[in-house]
Amino acid sequence: MADEDYKKLHPILSSVTQTYVDLYTNKPNEKNREQLIKLEQLLHEKLEKLKQAREAGE
Description:
Layout: H1 3-9, H2 11-26, H3 30-57
Helix pairs in contact: 1-2, 2-3
Coiled coil: 29-56
Keywords: Coiled coil
């Protein structure tokens, strides 16, 4: 799948992935590492809620 197709199909996931890449490669310091950890936790919480909602809808 081409990058542009992936971005169109999964805009939120694509954006989160780009944020992770930017934080890891462009700004490698402790403050950004802590921010990344918080973002990862938030992402996992949101994905878990989506998973639960999908399972409840089935």
